[in-house]
Amino acid sequence: MDETDGPNFREIAYWNSEAVDNWTAQQERMDATLAPVAAAALARAAPVAGERVIDVGCGCGATVLALAAAVGPQGHVLGVDISRPMLDRARERAAASGLAQVSFVQADASLHAFPPAAADLVFSRFGVMFFRNPVDA
User: pTM for the complete prediction?
Assistant: First the structure.
């Protein structure tokens, strides 16, 4: 099944539309607003050096950057999101931070074929709440 006609097709269309311009333009403000929630979620997830992490619904990359700092250069963080504009911003931020242990994929996490045992930790700040079936995501 093509992700564009999958269960999250409306979300995919929205998060790749002009409506997302405001989200990316307000990225710094959103990061500041969500910082307490992100800190609590990251503390609960407790990423450690060397781990492989998947960040589902990574958006503009704030939690990818924090996870990358926690796993260090021997670890790896894969940021997954359906929004190309947000992933473009996340890529810019990771490159500006010099984080070689970060990569990104534009995909619907509920349908994407992740390799078996691809991660030690799967993280999401708010990303899975947008999926039609959050458990699958």
Answer: 0.84
